[in-house]
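ok so for the tutorial part 2 we go from a plain amino acid sequence to predicted structure tokens. step 1 is just haveing the sequence, like this:
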Amino acid sequence: MISVVIPAYNEENVIGDTIRELRDALGRNTEIIVVADGTDNTTHKARKAGAIVIKRMGRLGKGSAVTNGMKMSHGAVVGFVDADGAVDAASITRLVTSLKGCDAAIASRRVRGSLIDEDVSFSRRVSRVAFNFIVNALFQLGLKDTQCGAKFFRAGAVKNVLPEMKSRGFEFDVELLWRMKRKGFRIKEIPVRWRHRKESKFSLSSGPAMLASLLKLRLS
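step 2 — the prediction. this is what the tokens look like for a chain of 220 residues:
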């Protein structure tokens, strides 16, 4: 079984399509767990599309949502994706099949073979490069893109590090990869097709807080 966790904060406009695309790509033997914060109709639409839903009160963060969902999962392969479907379904399938040679297969927009459909500002692009440079300087990950929102793992590997996780927000991805690398798990970046979506909940204003949390983590 494959388990997919989707953190969702007020994603009623996209969650149904994302679940159906995942089901079509990965097959019926796929467990889809939506961890829903917020106040809109996400919970109803996710259940209608066939997902298991964990409903939480208040905005508790991507990191805590993914951790909650993974702890509930039953698949031998477990991963998480963004609710807006920014990484297309064919790429998700490629991530899963890539686990034959590693413990973590992560979507990357910065490796050869990636296709990027986006119309974003120059400042956002510069911020991505700067963030990745700082992250690699702090954590020595050797990765080109830690923040692309689709990552899949061998369940035994990722659940080995979940009890140590501290991050609750968007910085979760960096901490997770860092802890896995420290334990010797193999991480591979996989080229994907990525589409910038206006529905994305990430904002550049989150960057300073993310970096502050990561610096605190690294120095602890």
